[in-house]
């Protein structure tokens, strides 16, 4: 128990020293950018599974661009992206259990910061772009429908006058 208290005290002291020694002139966003940069620099990007994950996300983004004018396929793709994003927690648990089989280090912590940053966020980003293309198509259809309705009403009035 005393050893645990000593570890907790030393961690708290280190955090307090870091907070007191950090320059006060840096904004929250600069500090967040520095922490994010340190996070991404700590990852070993030469691992094949990380390269595969990046390739998967690039392929998904290119697929969004390819499907942008295919209005029947885009909603299915959108829900597929969200479905894959829903698998984040089970994948994080599986990754924390079996990380020795595919990774050099255990990146899968309980908070899920790593898997959210590198897996879920890009999927949600692709889903956002899919949604934007779906909304654009919907608005375009509504405008076209209203134009035809106005044109049809004008034609009816014109035919009644004659």
Record the SSE blueprint:
Layout: H1 2-21, H2 28-41, H3 48-67, H4 74-86, H5 88-98, H6 113-161
Helix pairs in contact: 3-6, 4-6, 5-6
Protein name: Transmembrane protein 18-domain-containing protein
Pfam family, one: TMEM18
Transmembrane segments: 49-67, 74-92, 112-139
What this model shows, in words?
With 162 residues, the protein is mainly alpha-helical. The chain has a domain at 47-133. 78% of the residues lie in helices and 0% in strands. The protein contains 6 helices and no strands. The protein has helices spanning 2-21, 28-41, 48-67, 74-86, 88-98, 113-161. Helix 3 (48-67) runs parallel beside helix 6. The chain is elongated. The N and C termini lie far apart (97 Å). The model has no long low-confidence stretch (mean pLDDT 85).
Poorly predicted runs of 5 or more residues = none
From the structure provided, what is the oligomeric state, counting identical versus distinct chains? single chain
Measured between the Cα atoms of the first and last residue, the distance is 97 Å
Q: What pattern of helices and strands is seen along the backbone?
A: HHHHHH
Number of strands: 0
The major β-sheet equals: none
- Determine the structural class based on helices, strands and strand pairing: mainly alpha
Shape: elongated
Beta-strand portion reads under 5%
**Average residue pLDDT:** 85
Number of helices: 6
Q: Give the radius of gyration.
A: 26 Å
Helicity level: over 70%
Keywords: Membrane, Transmembrane, Transmembrane helix
Protein name: Transmembrane protein 18-domain-containing protein
InterPro entries: TMEM18
